[in-house]
Design a protein that fits this description.
The protein has two helices and 17 strands. With 357 residues, it is mainly beta. A hairpin with a 2-residue loop joins β5 (101-108) and β6 (111-119). The protein has a 16-stranded antiparallel beta barrel. 6% of the residues lie in helices and 54% in strands.
Amino acid sequence: MKKSLIALAAVAASGAAFAQSSVTLFGVVDTGVSYVKGSGGTSNYGLSTGNMSSSRLGFRGVEDLGGGLKAGFWLEGGFNADTGDGKAAGASGTGFEFARRSTVSLMGNFGEVRLGRDETAAFNKLSAYSNFSVIGMGGFRGWNSTIGDGIRLSNMIAYFTPNFNGFTAGVDYAFGEKAGDSKNGRYFGGFAAYNNGPLSVTLGADRKNNVVDGKAGFKDAAKVDTYGLGASYDFGVAKVNGLVLQAKEKDALNGVNTKQTSYALGVSAPVGGVGVVKAQYALYNAKNDAAANNGKAHQLSLGYEHNLSKRTALYGYYSYLKNKSERQMTLNTSNPGYSVGAGKDSNGIQVGIRHAF
């Protein structure tokens, strides 16, 4: 009888271990006041959202399946914190959707296999080498041009390797799922990275087919190839970052060939153990068959972030962008919107608060 009870207890304990799981509710609320002005265009001011971090709400969870195998899910959607409206890349309406990320995955000693909608692997890693990421006034604009960004995609399968003494890699493939042509809308890409101690280096590349919907098929549609190299080194008293990104488009149907090469060089330094000061210079050099999109744009961004706690921070950003030739690039702000004249400059300032939970 005792042996039976011991065996039953062992099975129960084993079952409990296999059933271990956790679910976490998380999010960010980021709201600030912004002012932007474009020479030869318009100026505007008002409340803005997602300046330091994108406002979002999500659920994530992990279940221990035993033997080193785990299952996980991640559901995350964006919203406008200044209005409460749902907002996310790829969202079909104004309501809240899990369009930032919607994935299920298996994880183990082999790495991770992930299925669903997510950021592309190359963008996810390379965008981290911008001091201001790709949001807010100082946000890096290399992925935002006439050739389209495609930083998040649906119907994607991704694989990420384990960490081998600082070396990691990942590949992803997104099905086009367009009627009549399996290559129409297809995507594939990946990255290879080294992160060990103060040094971090990442190479990334991807291809997107038929970026603009409605084109006939792969042979007559746009193909966008993106290549990037990012690196940073932390000296302790300051951290230096650099990023180079080149995107090329070939569009046989409309006879358009576009190439943009973007560079960023920045530095950040801790202040008093509770803040960080940032500065970054970026250059965007576009060559396009359409004259209005040709030319260079120079961007200088400054910022300070002050941590009131581990979850709450105040921030202030300033950015100046100077267009050359016929270029009309603007600073990264969806609200308030503004315009700038061809070859003119613009500048903006943001102050606000971010709370994470």
